[in-house]
Design a protein that fits this description.
Strand content: 15-25%
Number of helices: 14
Bound molecules: ligand JHZ
Number of strands: 19
Helix content: 25-40%
Largest sheet: 7 strands, mixed
Length: 408
């Protein structure tokens, strides 16, 4: 593991620490039963603010082949909300750009084909790029042509040399995952046609800070973006942030529309002005975050301990990466939570990193009827509560940990 001395975007050495999450295991490194006795790899995790370009980032860089290995367990298609969100995005872009069989759409971090399958079904040629072979195989099984590889400037150049420049590139929840921040943006600029469009989604740092979504901080996420920091990053590579939308997905995200021609819309001007108005371009804005994270930790632990002292049983929903940060930072072990359930069959039978809580299929909930269910995948709380209506009818109660632990 390496620790950065200068900003991942602008290379300034003026980095101010805003949060220290201690030493944690990797959030998606679920533990196989036969490895329960073996020590897990753990890494420090600390967040800094760049005084020059305002980018929030973690100091630590874990090598990507360790993070996104063969056993990478994240499959996008397990959330109905995400599938709907992606299908609606694709329908809008096909209609607006009048896409057809003569065009090419590329997705970086295409995972199991959850998004590109919509273009494929409409007869538009697609190419997914993703280094995680398990999800990539699923994509290929459903007809989504996928390159199992990391997206680098060299790969973008070789695709462009083969005449495979894209009309549209999607890059959802991947910008933050790449250690060479400038490299991925320059690669996007290489791969997109001169009149093409790049559509990027990133979790929004304003939502993270204001709703205390500290659990979305883990080693896979190297950067936490604002409009201000992104605008500087893109311009450095001849790309213009022309339009932006705020989305509710993943606890609050930005959808960014980029092109090689500058055509900045009011949405972008307004977002940047709002960010300046609340001071996101100064470290003061981030100053009390660590204290609010600590308060949440204290409140959640106190709530779970109180319920246990009353003889209640507790389980958790969602073996999400963010769930690993939550349980490890707060210290939610087997003495508080009996087990975790998750719909993703690749996660069932494994154990959460660090606290080693076992992961089962959601059916276990009705069998065991724990009194409380801590929703670790709180970003999908509505979808999960709707699916678990029977659990609720039988008296089960839900706990949502952010922005403030609450019983629903
Ligand atoms: P979910 C992932 O983070 C991974 P995670 C990644 N690092 C990233 O950047 C962000 O997303 C954006 C399960 N589930 O998506 C599926 C059910 O069981 O919030 C998942 O295991 N039933 C690339 O892992 C987990 O919950 C359901 O009904 O924090 C959700 O994980 C639903 C909706 C989900 O992301």
């Amino acid at each position: 593991m390496e620790s950065i001395k200068s900003c991942r975007s602008c290379a300034s050495s003026k980095l101010t620490q805003i949060l220290d999450l201690g030493v944690t295991p990797l959030a998606d490194a679920l533990v196989k039963p036969e490895n329960l006795d073996k020590p897990e790899g753990t890494y420090p995790l600390s967040v800094v603010y760049c005084e020059q370009c305002t980018l929030i980032q973690i100091r630590e860089t874990v090598p990507p082949d360790v993070l996104f290995c063969q056993d990478y367990p994240y499959y996008s298609s397990f959330s109905e909300a995400l599938l709907k969100h992606s299908a609606a995005n694709v329908a809008e872009i096909i209609a607006r750009r009048k896409l057809g069989p003569e065009h090419l759409v590329v997705e970086i971090a295409s995972n199991d084909g959850y998004l590109l399958k919509n273009y494929h079904a409409a007869g538009i040629p697609v190419l997914g790029i993703d280094p995680a072979s398990g999800p990539a195989q699923r994509a290929m099984d459903i007809g989504v042509d996928t390159l199992v590889d990391f997206f680098t400037p060299a790969l973008a150049q070789s695709l462009a040399d083969e005449g495979k420049q894209a009309d549209v590139i999607h890059a959802n929840n991947v910008l933050a995952h790449v250690a060479d921040t400038n490299g991925i943006v320059s690669a996007l600029a290489t791969l997109v046609k001169d009149d093409g469009e790049i559509v990027i989604e990133v979790p929004y740092v304003k939502d993270l800070i204001e709703h205390v979504e500290f659990d979305t901080i883990y080693h896979e996420h190297l950067c936490y973006f604002s409009g201000i920091a992104l605008d500087k990053l893109f311009r450095r590579h001849g790309l213009y942030l022309n339009d932006v939308r705020r989305l509710s997905i993943h606890g609050g995200s930005l959808r960014l529309f980029l092109g090689k021609q500058e055509a900045v819309q009011d949405s972008v001007k307004e977002l940047l002005a709002q960010e300046r108005a609340v001071g996101m371009d100064t470290s003061t804005y981030y100053e009390d975050f660590a204290q609010r994270v600590d308060q949440l930790k204290h409140d959640l632990l106190a709530l779970l301990q109180k319920l246990k002292s009353e003889g209640k049983s507790i389980a958790a929903y969602g073996a999400a990466a963010k769930g690993a940060t939550m349980i490890n930072y707060v210290g939610v072990g087997a003495e508080l939570v009996d087990f975790v359930v998750d719909r993703n069959s690749y996660k069932q039978g494994l154990h959460m990193p660090g606290q080693l809580l076992p992961i089962f299929a959601p059916e276990k909930l009705l069998e065991s009827m724990p009194d409380y269910l801590l929703i670790l995948a709180w970003n999908f709380a509505d979808e999960i509560r709707a699916q678990q209506s029977q659990y609720a009818e039988r008296g089960g109660k839900f706990i949502v940990p952010v922005p403030k632990p609450a019983i629903l």
